[in-house]
């Protein structure tokens, strides 16, 4: 079951606001030449590539590089790079002086990369559209589908620990309590998970690859299921694997937002601040919910409750 919802664009004005840049004559005439660099050739990146090119005006031309390796020695004329994923973004920042729009990247990973590459690239020439949702939207969703579960457990690594103070405030604003645990080593991951689950009635997965890796997700889901603690994920894959629900943006949704951002750039010569997704999808796993004794609301009720949560009418 999926719901696609439109929400207002979230601009982070303090983060890397672009100033006018100097472009070629073709760019000033709104005839941008774009290098679209993919992190790999897997289906999500191909879906993004196809949707991105379909959403661009005819005056903007795109050359697609299927892997970051193709950027090495590339001499194709271009006015900017759209880097899809962290590997593509890292390669672009190291190998090109062109303006870069980084998309489908987790906020924590992107900010860490920018901090490392600051001496190499002027921050005004790079911007991002994040893969993850803003915390307030994520919590509006969590408390819309699980209104009685107020003890929200999270595992974080040192890379995402900086977000915990803000997340704690947002959970409190929704009438909940955050149960947090920092994981410093793979060796302690499942012991740390047990600590969190013992005091929580829902686990919120953070977009943190140091914890939620391909080798750990299945066992994390098994642990939550065994202790009857539902997990809220951040991709369709989580729901398929056994999470009760997830809030995420599809490659096609992110591609549409990216195309609109590039089109604006072609007209203004400015990047916006870093953006969260402005459209998103909800997926639920009814079978897992029933096995945990959870009665999920209908699509319409979830959307309506999210709107009430955002307006401050929280239960």
Report on the architecture of this protein.
The chain has helices at 25-28, 43-55, 86-95, 107-117, 135-145, 164-173, 189-199, 217-226, 236-241, 251-268, 286-291, 299-311; strands at 2-6, 11-12, 33-38, 61-65, 80-84, 100-105, 126-130, 151-156, 177-182, 202-204, 231-233, 245-248, 274-275, 279-284. It is of the alpha/beta class and 315 residues long. The chain has two domains: 7-133 and 250-278, Response regulator (Rossmann fold), CATH 3.40.50.2300; 135-247 and 285-311, Rossmann fold (3-Layer(aba) Sandwich), CATH 3.40.50. It has a seven-stranded mixed sheet, sandwiched between helices. It has a five-stranded parallel sheet with strand order 4-3-5-6-7, with helices on both faces. The radius of gyration is 20 Å and the shape is globular. The relative contact order is 0.18. Mean pLDDT is 87; it is low at 3-29.
